[in-house]
Amino acid sequence: MKGASGRTGRPKHAPRRARFAQRRADEHGSPITFGEPGRSPKSRKEPVHVPHVVIVGGGFGGLYAAKALRNAPVRITLLDRKNHHLFQPLLYQVATAGLNPAEIAAPIRRVLRDQRNVQVLLAEVTGIDPDERTISSTAGTFGYDFLILATGASHSYFGHDDWEALAPGLKSLEDALEIRRRVLLAFEKAECCAPTPEERAAWLTFVIVGGGPTGVELAGTLAEVAHHTVANDFRVIDPTAARIVLLEGIDRVLPTYSELLSARAKRQLERLGVEVRTNAKVTGIDPEGVSIGEERLAAKTVLWAAGVRASPLGQWLGAPLDRAGRVKVTPDLSVPGHPEVFVIGDLAFLEQDGRPVPGLAPAAIQEARHTARNILRTMKGEPRRPFRYVDKGSLATIGRNAAVADLGRVELSGFVAWVAWILIHVFFLIGFRNRFLVLFEWAFSYLTYERAARLITGAPPSKVVLPEPASRR
Ligand SMILES: Cc1cc2nc3c(=O)[nH]c(=O)nc-3n(C[C@H](O)[C@H](O)[C@H](O)COP(=O)(O)OP(=O)(O)OC[C@H]3O[C@@H](n4cnc5c(N)ncnc54)[C@H](O)[C@@H]3O)c2cc1C
């Protein structure tokens, strides 16, 4: 099969019958075998087939899978619709003007430039035909011997997709910059263009929906921005009067942590000046605020940090999905009926000891490395091994000197957890330059409360409302 670019997964000269026999063997569950490594084409008088591994997604799953195959006798094509790998755990720092986009992202092409067996393509995958073993993309159609799908997840608005424009979520750099724009603009509008105290209060009320780690991070940091960073920068408004309201539908924030850590997180948030409202289910969002049942909360800025929906690519496999659209994979992380297709990271659903493997970066990285090992085992004719997630603990930051850490037997909160959070996040950032810059920005911000990236960008100039000349004295 040829694509727009004329690329195909297998060499054109590969014997058709051999490929057919291979496919039949795969369909019947036999191990997939390839040309024996070590024997040259000359000695066997037939071309050695170099298996083609197509990886979709250059996030934690896709990037680490490609890296784990760096010494493997395979040819890899990695496709991503973005040209950069994004360190999502620090997105909230871009959204709250603490870091610049380039400090938490790196071009995938640069990260993999020394790995000779991989080609990186900027392309969006638009279809998968698992029976034909092809994927279609904006860069053409590709055949594959092994496919690794790692396209992650995005927000779910629980059937209210119309809320998306009113309450942006945080998943990409574009989302983070839009949130930054709305937050900084809200202070400007309150200063220049809010004639009544009610309107000023609405501009200075920031509602975050969802009390998971992202909601908690956003709320804590926004409180710091309002109560310290911009506290002395305005003449009409008092930014320290801003309300930061965190709404959570169930009875505690950080529900994946223990009840003790949830309670401590709530206390730390309140100390930072966040109003934490639990058992508060949002029933409506409009440009003027949110409804919680009968109650009305006037707020011009609403941010969404609840609900996850898996990337739509899983639907094209014809495999069973869970309620969030994640692919229910077999224990070796392949798709039922298609041992050559692996799904990893946030797109995969696998239960371990009665609980789903969490949608976290370490899980995606471990799955990526495990899949690379299973591909090599398959190529050698060895049986695959089931995946087992090793939980090394989880951390959530809340704000300055405030975090919680669940390290299995040890639970930490406050300053020690916060330092642990900083060290781990800096360690996992891609590239020395980014690590250095982020540490520098944080140290500067810690000492001064200043945030380096307080720029309002992205809004059409006509939409930035300036004060009427008459209102100036
Ligand atoms: C705001 C936020 C904070 C987080 N904080 C933490 C944290 O503190 N700790 C932690 O462990 N985890 C955290 N996570 C979760 C963690 O980031 C994810 O678990 C991890 O990124 C999953 O990796 P992945 O490879 O499955 O998907 P992703 O990293 O999301 O990568 C998916 C990639 O696929 C690409 N893609 C998608 N669709 C297509 C397509 N059709 N064609 C081509 N390319 C496509 C995307 O561009 C993207 O590069 C956070 C997530 C978010 C959103």
TrEMBL record:
GO molecular function: NADH dehydrogenase (quinone) (non-electrogenic) activity
Pfam families reported in the protein's UniProt record: NDH2_C (PF22366), Pyr_redox_2 (PF07992)
Domain of life: Bacteria
Ranges of residues in domain External alternative NADH-ubiquinone oxidoreductase-like C-terminal: 392-447
Chain intervals with Basic residues compositional bias: 9-22
Top-level class of the enzyme under EC nomenclature: oxidoreductase
Domain FAD/NAD(P)-binding: residue ranges: 52-368
Residue ranges of the TM segments: 415-432
Official protein name in the record: NADH:ubiquinone reductase (non-electrogenic)
Organism of provenance: Polyangium spumosum
